[in-house]
User: Fold chorismate mutase from Bacillus seohaeanensis.
Amino acid sequence: MMIRGIRGATTFEEDNEFDVISSTKQLVEQLINQNEIEPGNVASVFISATTDLTSTFPAKTLRQFSGWKYVPVMCMQELAVPGGLSQCVRIMIHYNTDKEQDEIKHVYLKKAVSLRPDLNE
Assistant:
């Protein structure tokens, strides 16, 4: 078994708790389902958000999923690079798995598909 990074990103329309949490929840659901993630095999989760998110912590979303209570989660701020994607939440799940690197399914939703168009072919 090896630890693998499972990446994903999404965008939100408005900086309010409902929109940020619902967008993040949609992303996490797809990451879990597409990669058959069991919370007991998750080492940790890093969540970054662009500087225009100030309404809530996207990490709160993970507590809505059964079995994720004790998974270590950390929020951080994404670099404010000129021309970068705004209103964006990015997730990195550190997951213990037997899957090979090319078997991991990374998920990019909404405007975030522009971050990794090579993975959406």
User: Anything to note?
Assistant: The chain has a mean pLDDT of 95. The chain has one domain: 2-116. The two ends are 28 Å apart (CA to CA). The CA atoms of residues 46 and 88 lie 14 Å apart.
